Amino acid sequence: MTVNQVSVFIENRQGRLGEVLQVLKDNDVNILSISLADTTEYGLLRLIVNKPEHAKEVLLSAGFSSMLTEVLIIKVPHVAGALQNILAEIAKANVSIEYMYGLSVESNDASIVMKTNELEEAETVLENIHVDTMTSKEIESL
To answer: What are the distances in angstroms from CA 91 to CA 42, 69, 107, 118, 131?
Structure first.
């Protein structure tokens, strides 16, 4: 099951990240996970939030370039090698991981946000090896 990630392009200048976060705060959007990659000129902010569609709209209204991207959130047991075993199965299906970052929720498992080049194929692999994914409803309830 995929969920929507909010991606925001921001200028790489002091205070700009704070401005994005203020818009989300002012609009009652809860950030569950955040990843920021930067270059010398801009940053790419990736967020898992409780209300992704609302977040995108309020950010666009505030002048921030934002979009929704489908990603998977996988639940990884706290066992040595668990993530590597999952990724090995995904690789066997010729699915490439484009990026990943962690998500912290109250759970006995770790959670990883994952973007692949073939989301449906990755979902099938995960189902076949009995790896749980988070749903949009679970994200909205956090």
So the answer is: 31, 22, 26, 11, 15
